[in-house]
Write a structure and sequence with these properties.
Layout (H helix, E strand, L loop, with lengths): L1 E2 L10 H9 L12 H13 L6 E5 L2 H12 L4 E6 L3 H4 L4 H4 L4 E4 L8 H10 L7 E8 L10 H13 L3 E6 L2 H5 L8 H7 L2 E5 L9 E5 L8 H7 L8 H10 L4 H21 L4 E2 L7 E7 H8 L2 E2 L1 E7 L2 E7 L6 H12 L8 H4 L5 H5 L1 H6 L10 H7 L2
Helix pairs in contact: 1-11, 2-11, 12-14
Bound molecules: pyridoxal-5'-phosphate.
Pyridoxal-5'-phosphate binds next to helix 3.
Length: 386
């Protein structure tokens, strides 16, 4: 069994473990008052070209979200996010437990739609309702897509217009920025966002996220919020050391590129064999519709994560690769997919991401007992592709 379940199925990159071992007996002050932490903070400030930013290292993503949002929001203020946002779906109500409403909007390929956001801001028209104060975006999103520079700037402009803050959850920022379809840089993120974090856990660190507070309005007493929420790590240097390694000799981007390339191979195999991609593949995650009988078969060797049902007989499945994913396992999975082309249901079910490959290999598919799409429909299919 090989897991494509997540990007934290493995431990940490050997360089990181080595650096931790090297520093093991080095005596320093605790709670981030050490030279490693100072060095890592400087490196992150330089990376995001924000020389006055405050940088903190926190062990995990949920904890970072709790610290940031509870620090920013007054008791009557709320955060706007998508209905797939990690803070809305996968943090056990952690944000609501701090007393703040998460206003969830329908996602568009995992992203916030600027017009819909404006509508919901305007709908909160007086003090009988909560006051939306933060726009929460994840880049990459929870559906494996990424924001373009223009999309992020449009959200920031909206935030400025309505006196709100833009917070970016970068649990998967490394793979987002390493995507072949990306046009954002770390410097852009530093310039556009008020506050954001750079994920280490899903980028080859043992654990850890680097939180960057850019907007001066949010800086005051941030360290009190961190400590009060239990997020101030006594042996803080071991968080910082991991970021020093990740951002030395481009390790972070190399690991992210590997993860993305492995996912792209799996994605191409699916789309080339009649499967519908649920969202376009842009990072190290493939969201694909798989008939349940095929899924049972795949699960015997390669395990993804079922995201939810698609129809009565098919599921949306997420396959995630990591910095450590092995080439030969991906090749074996690709072979298995090619031997199991997806039977075509209705055109609507299949069309959006049917690849040209599928059309040109019609006969091969039919040999495997798969009903093929009428080639006259080819143009219609291409129109519907991403
Ligand atoms: C977008 C996003 N934010 C936050 C988290 C939470 O991270 P953690 O599991 O470290 O709390 C995740 C984890 O999958 C995530 O995908």
């Amino acid at each position: 069994m090989y897991l494509f379940d997540n990007d934290y199925s493995e431990g940490a990159h050997p360089n990181i473990l080595k650096a931790i071992v090297t520093a093991n007996l080095d005596q320093t002050l605790g709670y981030g008052e050490d030279a490693y932490t100072k060095k890592a903070q400087d490196m992150i400030r330089e990376l995001v070209a924000s020389k006055d930013a405050d940088v903190y290292f926190i062990t995990g993503g949920t904890l970072t979200n709790i610290v940031v949002l509870s620090h920013i929001l007054r008791p009557y203020e709320a955060v706007i996010a998508t209905d797939e946002a990690h803070i809305y779906t996968h943090e056990t109500g952690a944000i609501e437990a701090t007393g703040h409403k998460v206003i969830a909007l329908d996602n568009v390929n995992g992203k916030l739609d600027v017009d819909e956001v404006e509508k919901v801001i305007l709908a909160h028209k007086d003090h009988h309702m909560v006051l939306p104060k933060v726009l929460f975006v994840s880049n990459a999103t929870e559906l494996g897509t990424i924001y373009s520079r223009a999309e992020l700037i449009a959200l920031k402009e909206l935030a400025v217009k309505y006196d709100m803050y833009l917070y970016l959850d970068g649990a998967r920022l490394a793979v987002a920025l390493a995507s072949t379809t990306n046009d954002l840089t770390y410097q852009d993120i530093g310039m556009i966002c008020d506050v954001f974090y750079i994920g280490g856990t899903k980028n080859g660190a043992l654990f850890g996220e680097a939180l960057v507070v850019v907007n001066d309005d949010l800086k005051k007493n941030f360290n009190y919020s961190i400590k009060q929420k239990g997020a101030l790590f006594a042996k803080g240097k071991f968080l910082a050391i991991q970021f020093i390694e990740l951002y030395t000799n481009d390790l972070s981007v190399k690991l992210a590129r590997h993860a993305n390339a492995m996912a792209q191979k799996i994605s191409d195999a699916f789309s080339g064999n009649g499967y519908r991609l649920y969202t376009p593949t842009q990072i190290n995650q493939v969201f694909v519709v798989v008939n349940n009988d095929k899924l049972d078969l795949f699960n015997q060797q390669f395990q993804g994560q079922v995201w939810g049902p698609f129809t009565d007989t098919s599921s949306i499945v997420r396959y995630t690769t990591s910095w450590a994913t092995k080439h030969e396992q991906v090749d074996n999975f690709v072979d298995l997919i090619a031997k199991n082309v997806q039977p075509v249901g209705s055109l609507e079910d299949q069309a959006p991401v049917l690849s040209l490959d599928y059309i040109t290999r019609k006969e091969e598919f039919e040999d495997q007992g798969v009903k093929a799409v009428d080639l006259d429909e080819k143009d219609k299919i291409e129109d519907l592709r991403f």
